[in-house]
Specification:
Elements: H1 2-15, H2 19-26, H3 30-37, H4 45-54, H5 59-63, H6 75-87, H7 92-107
Amino acid sequence: METFALNLKRRAEQLGISNAEVARRAGLSDRRYGNYVSGVREPDLSTLVRIADVLGSSVDELLGVNPTDNTIRTIEEQFQDRITVALKALKSEDLQRLVLMIEALASAPKQPT
């Protein structure tokens, strides 16, 4: 149970989201999700699958069955991962607005770094 709790914390930190936000996206109360993060309780299978989906992770990764490699990821890869997970929480009208913003950013002239 300790590995699971640590993996929940680690993954949310990687994505830059709070435990409360993970709980909200998974349709759980803060208290219930807090029990999972603290290692007090374990979720049932359907809840575990929802949490893994919200965190853009596999059930195995969260349980520590098949730990992911610890290769260093670029900052761009980390941002893309965060964006991918955040997209799942958006509704259709928000996605439509976001597409326009992203297209505008992508077509904007690049400034030298």
